[in-house]
Design brief:
Distance between the termini: 52 Å
Number of helices: 16
Shape: globular
Strand content: 25-35%
Structural class: alpha+beta
Largest sheet: 8 strands, parallel
Strand order of the largest sheet: 27-26-25-24-23-30-29-28
Radius of gyration: 28 Å
């Protein structure tokens, strides 16, 4: 952490600003701005798009270019102060000139760098910032590139330190970032600059350490650091700075929430008797697990192997690019609720604030952080560009130095892949920036984090997923069968499973009232790779036909509602099945992150959560797939059905494993159960034959006579309570043959103001889903078999809903709606 102590010496400059747009480079100084031009009253931090949207002058669904004009932010500062001070700019997007009382005092060339400028206050001062139009500057492409990525719509991006958001048509709306997107503050003379870092002893003693350094012009008589019940006094070093080191023996360690408690400890700095809360930190060790053959990639946290699962982050709001806890909280809490223990911030996005990491610390979510480098051939020999990159990363690592959630820092996304796919040799697409310079920066600033040179990387070719880090789209964009998830021998997928995931119907009705056909509004919000003849809806349709044996174009034309429901179901099924393969005992895969966590606009985007914050079917599927205590089934062909059990927690558990094969979704033809002790942090595999005690063709591989069943159900119960911890389903004849017109029994109840549904069925019901206006179901898009009632919480979407819940419960295979 490197920051000024909060208090009287720091003042946020957030209100009183005006915004004026002028033609590109038309005004050299603030005095050149014509008085007749319209000015908007705006707040900081904020973006030009945000200000225009609030004024009704910008439409995020039909955006106009924002990079062809200069944006002038101006503020009159009235105070009693007559002193030297520091203007601190936490983020200016992107080419910015700073004027103080009409004089140019500084310039910023990077969206990602913090800038501090000393000024002399007079008591009546004018601060102006001109954000120059990027469009003419993007025409300058710099030194000749050895490859040119197709994903971006301008090659000039590689020379300008700004986000790729807005410059990737087919991926996101063309909303260009501009303006003071991070806070601006005034730092007084009496400020205290604090630099702190925490670590955990790697020798196994369990001793946590906090190092701290203070820089100030104040004459401090005493300084004391306290954390986790231990304290240490600070002393002046040879440079006159106050510094200290606090050792905490036997400190409670921080874990990802799937594997333990994300323990945090408050750090308090006492200066001359006054206490200052610096925040909280956690202590943990990380190391790379390369696997038995040395070709893998996984994380060991505090000595324990952790299967990393989660999704890629985009942004909390594509227009505002916000950075506060209230903006992050809804998204990250849903990630944790779904059982995710890792979030990746990719190189095409933007660095998030320390508040993002503080929330991940609390929730027990590890962060894979890319440098904001993606796809391009960056000229590392350009001294100015290289220095900007080093500075932005150094500042980011300093700002997050107390956050245990920062687990992996990566040199960027798909630069190696771009060069390798064009047939260039390794010495061309590997460079000193990612191989030498950035790992040295990390070693100096965050030696406790893992460094990865590029994503993907590590295999014979960087995009081969059978070694190191992969971007796996075999199941997904490349339309491979589900079995490819095993055949590809995936080790760690930093990206995977991108589909055009359809939101719930209420979101579509409110925000995209277009038919799921080739309606331009629908297609405009369906992601695609630039220049490709297909989009990710075509990918989803491929698996709809593969898993349910229907013709998607015919179904879409004849029954649009059923097409949408089956499309929601199929992406959920594909994701759950793929993670079941990767998490089974014996799998080579040690982690996978889905592309992406959230949509940028309402529609069938990549997100697991739609742009309004409502989970999609795939979120519910992954919530099941990511359970720390899990059961899954795999079809091993003529070797029968295997049952895979996982217990990632630190506690053992007494369970009962049940396995049942049903004919017509209702009649048990074989059933077995076995008590099992699940040992902590272990997995195991059991053949179905071991439970049955005799041969039974569970996979219908031998085909001796007609099939005896259409579904196999595995349940794992906690012995103490009888509660079903996890369940899994296998369809030996395919999902279509097991679609039944189930009769659902639905009851609604209320207890202490909390509403819930109890749902039962007379036969197998696939993809049971609940729709209740104003409420969301805690579980959705799940399979249900007779003999077990599922209790579902109904969670109000507003603080105080006006009416009790009402709605419908439906399932695939039946056109009936069961109302409550």
């Amino acid at each position: 952490m490197r920051t000024y102590l909060p208090g009287e010496s720091e003042k946020l400059l957030s209100e009183g600003w005006t915004l004026t747009l002028t033609p590109a480079d038309a005004c050299e100084t603030p005095s050149d701005i014509p008085a007749a031009l319209e000015s908007l009253h705006v707040s900081v931090p904020g973006t030009v798009a945000q200000a225009l949207e609030l004024a009704g002058k910008f439409d995020r669904f039909n955006p106009t270019p924002l990079n062809d004009r200069d944006a002038w932010y101006r503020l009159t500062m009235i105070s009693d102060a007559r002193e030297r001070a520091i203007l601190r700019f936490d983020g200016l997007s992107t080419i910015a000139e700073i004027f103080f009382n009409g004089e140019l005092i500084a310039a910023s060339q990077s969206m990602f760098e913090r800038l501090e400028v000393p000024v002399q206050l007079t008591g009546a001062d004018e601060l102006s910032i001109c954000f120059r139009a990027l469009s003419p500057r993007l025409e300058k492409t710099g030194p000749r590139a050895r490859w040119r990525p197709q994903m971006m719509n301008t090659q000039g991006l590689r020379m300008i330190r700004t986000s790729a958001l807005g410059y990737m048509p087919g991926w996101c709306p063309e909303i260009h970032s501009a303006g003071p997107w991070r806070p601006i503050s005034l730092i007084g003379q009496e400020s205290v600059l604090c630099t702190a870092r925490s670590s955990l002893d790697e020798t196994g003693t369990g001793t946590g350490t906090v190092n701290i350094t203070l820089e100030t012009s104040r004459d401090l008589q005493s300084a004391r650091l306290t954390c986790a019940g231990y304290s240490a006094d600070l002393s002046r070093d040879e440079n006159g700075k106050l510094s200290g080191k606090l050792n905490i023996p036997g400190v409670e360690t921080w874990w990802p929430h799937t594997h333990g408690r994300p323990a945090l400890h408050e750090i308090v700095l006492e200066l001359d008797g006054k206490q200052h809360r610096l925040g909280r930190t956690g202590f943990r060790n990380l190391e790379i697990d390369y696997g038995e053959d040395g070709k893998g990639f996984g994380l060991r946290v505090n000595g324990q192997s952790v299967f990393c699962r989660g999704a890629a982050w985009t942004t909390a709001d594509i227009v505002r690019l916000p950075g506060t806890r209230p903006d992050y909280e809804p998204w990250l809490k849903k990630a944790a609720e779904a059982g995710m223990n890792m979030i990746r911030v990719g190189g095409t996005m933007a660095y998030e604030t320390p508040e993002f990491f503080a929330l991940c610390d609390e929730l027990g979510i590890m962060v894979w952080q890319d440098a904001m480098l993606a796809n391009f051939d960056y000229p590392a020999k350009d001294d100015a560009l290289r220095q900007h990159i080093v500075t932005e990363i150094s500042q980011f690592l300093e700002a997050t130095a107390l956050s245990p959630s920062l687990a992996i820092f990566c040199g960027g996304s798909e630069m190696y892949q771009q060069g390798a796919m064009l047939g260039l040799p390794e010495q061309i697409w590997k460079g000193t920036l990612t191989e030498d310079i950035l790992p040295d920066v990390l070693a100096g600033k965050r030696p406790d984090a893992v460094y990865v040179a590029n994503s993907p990387s590590g295999g014979t070719l960087p995009f081969f997923p059978n070694a190191g880090i992969g971007h796996y789209y075999g199941v997904g964009a490349y339309c491979r069968p589900l079995e490819d998830a095993r055949r590809a021998d995936v080790r760690f997928a930093a990206e995977c499973l991108a589909f055009a995931n359809i939101p719930e119907q209420d979101t579509l009705d409110r925000h995209l009232p277009a038919l799921a056909t080739h309606d331009p509004r629908w297609k405009a919000r369906t992601p695609r790779d630039r220049g490709a003849s297909w989009d990710f809806e075509d990918v989803r349709d491929h698996y709809l036909k593969l898993l349910y044996d229907v013709e998607p174009d015919v179904l879409r034309r004849e029954d649009g509602g059923l097409y949408l429901d089956m499309s929601r179901a199929v992406t959920a099924e594909v994701m759950e099945a793929t993670f079941a393969e990767w998490r089974r005992d014996g799998s080579s895969c040690r982690g996978a992150l889905v592309w992406t966590l959230q949509d940028l606009v309402p529609g069938a985007g990549w997100g697991l959560i739609d742009a309004t914050g409502r989970p999609k079917s795939v979120w519910h599927a992954l919530k099941r797939a990511f359970r720390p205590i899990q059961v899954s089934l795999s079809d091993e062909g003529t070797n029968g059905l295997d049952i895979h059990l996982v217990n990632e927690t630190g506690d053992g558990l007494e369970t009962m494993l049940e396995l049942t094969c049903l004919r017509d979704g209702t009649q048990p033809v074989v059933h077995a159960k076995r008590p099992l002790t699940l040992l902590p942090r272990q997995g195991q595999t059991i053949a179905a034959t071991e439970l049955f005690g005799a041969f039974f063709d569970t996979t219908y591989a031998y085909r001796f006579g007609p099939p005896s069943h259409d579904v196999t159900v595995a349940r794992l119960r906690e012995v103490a309570t009888g509660h079903v911890i996890a369940d899994a389903f296998h369809f030996p004849l395919g999902r279509k043959k097991a679609l039944h017109a189930a009769n659902l029994q639905v009851g609604v109840s209320e207890e202490k103001g909390n509403w819930s549904l109890e749902i039962g069925t007379d036969r197998l019901a696939q993809s049971v889903h609940v729709a209740a206006e104003g409420y969301s179901a805690s579980e959705n898009w799940f399979h249900l078999v007779p003999g077990e009632t599922r209790k579902i919480s109904l969670l109000p979407e507003t603080a105080a809903p006006e009416t009790p819940p009402s709605g419908d419960v439906m399932s695939l295979g039946s056109s009936r709606r069961f109302s409550f």
